[in-house]
Amino acid sequence: MRKLHITSVKPGDVIAKSVFLENGNVLLGHGVELTARYIERLVRLGIDTLYVQDKHTDDIIPEDVIRDETRKDAVDTVYKTMTTLMDQPHMKGRTSLPDFGSSFQKVFREILTDLSSRRDVLVNLSNLHVLDGYFFHHAVNVAVLAGVVGLAKGYNQQQMMELGIGALLFDIGMTQVPKELWTMRTELTAEDRQRIQYHTEDGFNILRHQHNISVVSAHCALQHHERYNGTGYPRQLSEKNIHEYARIVAIADVYDALISPRPFRKSYSPSDATEFLFASGNTYFDLDLLKIFLQHVAIYPIATTVLLSTGHIGVVSYVNPLAVSRPIIRILQEEDGSPVASPYEINLYDKEWMTVTIVKSL
């Protein structure tokens, strides 16, 4: 299969990976043939990339680190919990919600099982969802990314659960913010910005009243917008004064936000997002944690279409964990723009190709 920007997709292309609604249900399943009407609808819903079937890349299959069933269950749990709180903002977390913590313990246990069974797979967040589903899918992606870092650090079972639940629920305070504020396409006023910033304290207050959620998990909600140099909020904490769980969640939050389309901007490519993060090491983010994170994320995920410095266009077919920026590329288009007679692969890690670089993802 091949990942393409929505502007490069055409009627007759066949979907190779499902597109999801905000609650985790399937909007368009794999195997569906696209029509002009389908494409127009996907654009309206904020979908900016799709995986399509391609006879030259049918054997290229990107692996997510968690199973589709695990993701669906996790998104559904997040969706039900968050929408309940959105509908009942007066609760403000002052009362304990029945089975709240145990539901999320079950969800993250399933995520952790998947992560533990595929420790060597570089993270490739290949799930696609409508723009309105960002809030719910984002929570699951942040939990996956945070879990990868926790495992790499050798966290024990208790630490993994504390981190994972904190990551799943880190943005729960946004349920107390009027939806029109966090979906605005225009610049926020100072008053609106301040109201949104309260979501960290609102989230902490919701979580600390749940009898089966650890207070350190609640600190992920409180501190995920703190920055390593003390310029964050709500308390302008710096360095090790920010709980390590929150420092991990902060990295995962920003990375997934960058690679996701938002109402006010297009998505970043994974390579651009990782470049931004690395440049922010020991300024916004803990550099030691950031290095661990970047060792486990695919800069050029499998099935990504890329332009090479030679002018060739190809698709990433394999990512070398020892050199994530030098993948194997299946060439589909020659440097003069003509399609290849027969696709062939080049390994950018091999000596003969070391001068060739990836210019950008397409």
Automatic annotation (TrEMBL):
InterPro entries: HD/PDEase_dom, HD_GYP_dom. PROSITE patterns: HD_GYP (PS51832). Keywords: Hydrolase. PANTHER family: CYCLIC DI-GMP PHOSPHODIESTERASE PA4108 (PTHR43155:SF2), CYCLIC DI-GMP PHOSPHODIESTERASE PA4108-RELATED (PTHR43155). It comes from Brevibacillus reuszeri. GO terms for molecular function: hydrolase activity. This is Metal-dependent phosphohydrolase. Coiled coil: none annotated. Residues 104-309 form the HD-GYP domain. The keyword Hydrolase applies.
